[in-house]
Design goal:
Elements (H helix, E strand, L loop, with lengths): L17 E2 L5 E3 L8 H10 L5 E5 L2 H7 L10 H4 L7 E2 L9 H11 L4 E4 L3 E6 L2 H23 L9 H11 L2 H25 L12
Parallel strand pairs: 4-5
Antiparallel strand pairs: 1-2, 3-6, 5-6
């Protein structure tokens, strides 16, 4: 998992730490996140899952405060047409295994979960899918908030349209394409930062 103490944009493969199912760091030098138990307890009970994402995206956090169900206003929301459970046992951080187990129980066999006034959790069969689901959930919350601000959604996707949109949008090739795009964007940003510091891609300074 990503360690504590650095931002997502600073991550490199060398920064990844390995943690066991009990939440103990077993490889890597940086500290682990307090909320490791979200990941470990979901992975403990979901043999179909290979990756868990937890983050605090602003639109999902704001939407969670409304106490309303996530509705399929647009394509992003259609992916979650079977509903997104909301964990409301606490709005605090999930810093022990008991709370991690409660989150895993609330998630059940779903792909995503909203932690009320806190953040989101997504569970994917790959890293690519888990990241893609997190992005889609945040956008679905944003679009629904826009509709709510305009008086509330009056028209929604439903029936066969909704089911077909959901199947068409949730595909392995899309997960991979979006993830690869994010990696390219990350690399491009780091290349620009190196250029601004006067370094070539090999890391050698080009300044006198």
């Amino acid at each position: 998992m990503k360690p504590a103490g650095i931002g997502l944009e600073e991550m490199t493969p060398d920064g990844i730490i390995t943690v066991d199912r009990e939440g103990e760091r077993i490889d890597g030098t940086m500290p682990r996140h307090n909320e490791v138990f979200i990941h470990s307890e979901i992975l403990r009970v979901r043999s179909d899952i290979a990756a868990v994402v937890h983050t605090h995206p602003p639109n999902a956090v704001a939407f969670s405060s409304l106490g309303r169900p996530l509705l399929p206003v647009g394509n992003d929301g259609s992916i979650f047409n079977d509903g997104v459970p909301v964990f409301s046992e606490t709005t605090d951080l999930i810093i022990d295994s008991a709370r991690g187990k409660a989150v895993a129980h609330c998630l059940g066999d779903r792909q995503a979960l909203i932690l009320r006034n806190h953040g989101i959790v997504t569970a994917g069969r790959s890293i690519e899918e888990a990241v893609w689901l997190a992005l889609k959930l945040e956008r679905a919350c944003r679009v629904l908030q826009l509709a709510e601000a305009a008086g509330g959604p009056k028209l929604l996707a439903d029936g066969d349209d909704l089911r077909q949109k959901s199947r068409r949008a949730n595909r392995t090739d899309l997960h991979t394409n979006v993830f690869n795009y994010l990696v390219r964007r990350w690399k491009c940003r780091h290349c620009h930062q190196d250029e601004a510091r006067g370094a070539d891609p090999s890391g050698h300074s080009s300044r006198a």
